[in-house]
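Lab channel / #folding
Pinned by the channel admin:
"Please post every new chain as: sequence first, then the structure tokens as a reply. Keep commentary short and put observations after the output so the thread stays searchable."

First post following the new format, from NK:
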Amino acid sequence: MATREQIDAVISLHKDGNRTDITVEYEDDAPYNISSKDPYELKHANISKNNLPVIISSVLLTTSGSTSLTTGATDQTTLLLTFSDNSTSADFSKVVMSSTDITIVTVDSNGLVIADAVNIGTADIRATSVENGTLISSLTYTVA
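Reply from TO:
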């Protein structure tokens, strides 16, 4: 048998056409939002907790060209960040770009990879999340 607990809460109701949004705010807890397309029937409602921090959940670094470069050549990488609310971004300011061997390839803060004009070899280019250093995506570049 389920138990019930009495709590103090503020309940707000907002109707917009066929959609009803109800916000329930408890003391110091983040508010819950309940929304339903049928204002009279909430059994098929979506319930979500508001004001949770949105954080980066994955980092994906890809190339718009090739990871095989000739000396002095460039390549523009692309970035796809996925967040905890399933939104996405290509904002390079949310990652630190680095090279495992700057004598082979360097990378700027916008993801532009530049092969050395003289040296050949292989190096990784990495995009590391600023807020979570364990989220890393890398590409291996070969300069010949």
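NK: The CA atoms of residues 85 and 118 lie 45 Å apart.
TO: also worth noting, The longest strand covers residues 74-83.
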